[in-house]
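Example record for the data management plan.
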Amino acid sequence: MQHTTVLLHEAVDGLELSPSDIVVDATFGSGGHAREITQILDKTGCYIGIDADETALDKEKLGDTAPQVHLVNDNFSNIANILSSLQIEKVDAVLADLGWRMEQFADGNKGFSFMHDGPLYMTFGNPDNYPFTAADIVNSWDEHVLADIFYSYADERFARRIAKEIVVQRKKEKILTTFQLADIVKSAYPKPALRNKSINPATKVFQALRIAVNEELTVLETFIKNGFSSLAPGGRMAIITFHSIEDRVVKHSFRELAHAGLGELVTKKPIIPAEEELKDNKRSRSAKLRIIKKI
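Corresponding structural encoding:
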């Protein structure tokens, strides 16, 4: 399945780039935004692409580029240290697309998808570098904590039923694969709810576990703080989210910066995909773009 970059032109246009700008693309991913950005920059400009998944970082995705290019395998919350290591004090634009590459879901060894059987990791990078994986969570965390994660990170209405069933099943055998977990979640759902469900019942549980494993909300807050601090006056930060929990973090963080007199909201309301994009890419339906300018 080919990955389609969401809100491609809206995000890049919203940054109002000049050819000589220094730009941080905090989520290199499939390189869609990267290609668009590097076509605007000339040899006096600089592009920095960051991704926690080292398999994503392929300079060939950019094609022929004029600006100086740095590709960095790291978590985007470390943006300040990354720029320091490159001897860059301030940048003109920061972009983050919090969506997923299709390749990540197709890779069963990552454990992100219930469509492929594989180890229950759900880590962006090497599982050995993480304090815990999704398997550690479902096999050892308390029932009430599991329920809280499923509800607070994914609005799963049957969070308590699912958490209870996980605890029952893990006593029989360890839950180590994506198919195991997906089957357990499905078994915990009331039959009437299954009949009326258009998406896989495991969707929200997998989302919640992924957020927990990668500490995504804390990481996002840190990224916004450090990324905004890295902007030069007049610089812009643009973030694309794909679910309400992430969008709330971005909205509240941007509003706090605006209320403190540090930034100006370029988008009072989020930019969403146009009808044409929605027709061509159903995955884009939940995307929201917010932009802030540093004063």
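Summary line stored alongside the record: The longest strand covers residues 231-241.
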